[in-house]
Amino acid sequence: MLRLSGTAQKYIVYGVELFIVYIIQFTPSLLPAFFGESPMLLTVCAVSIALFEGDITGMFFGMAAGLLIDAGSTAPFGFYGLVNLIICYGCGLLVMFLMRNNVVTSLILCFSAVVLASVAQWIFLSGSRDLLYFIPNILLPRAAYSTVTMPAFFYFNRAITTRLYDD
């Protein structure tokens, strides 16, 4: 019988988690809107994975989450893949070398990641250049709503990391 290593089991669980979050994020009217905005759950999930897995693994899961966002959105394919790849690589590096991995750090990095992804979307994909509308009506509600969901992902991925490891 084939027995997978703890690392392979973690990666399978992370992949299933991303797929379930993709379904939740892109099912219409499943999540309530907060000031007209819905959370960026796949970005939050990818950042949470990067916090526990580090820079390279976090980068690949960030790219996978971004490609799932691209598959469900009207953005050019690969845009969110590249944005999430860069964000998750940076978050993984910060936690590896500069910050401790705890809930407060995860909230700060989640808020920053959603702000960066939203600003990249606004700069490169938005036809509107009205910054005074974008910040209070789109950026802040989206970032706040996404950040509120981070502790659930943090504790779930911490449980996966502590229970599935190589002996």
Please give a structural write-up.
This protein has 167 residues and is an all-alpha fold. The radius of gyration is 16 Å and the shape is globular. It starts with 5 loop residues before the first helix and ends with a helix. The chain has six helices and no strands.
Looking at this protein, list some descriptive labels.
167 residues, mainly alpha, 6 helices
What is this structure's SSE topology?
Blueprint: H1 6-26, H2 41-53, H3 55-72, H4 79-97, H5 103-125, H6 131-163
Brief write-up:
The chain is built from 6 helices and no strands. With 167 residues, the protein is mainly alpha-helical. The two termini are 18 Å apart.
One letter per element, helices H and strands E, the order comes to HHHHHH
Any idea what the shape is?
globular
| End-to-end gap | 18 Å
Main sheet makeup: none
**Category from helices, strands and their pairing:** mainly alpha
Number of distinct beta strands: 0
The number of distinct helices, counting runs of at least 4 residues, comes to 6
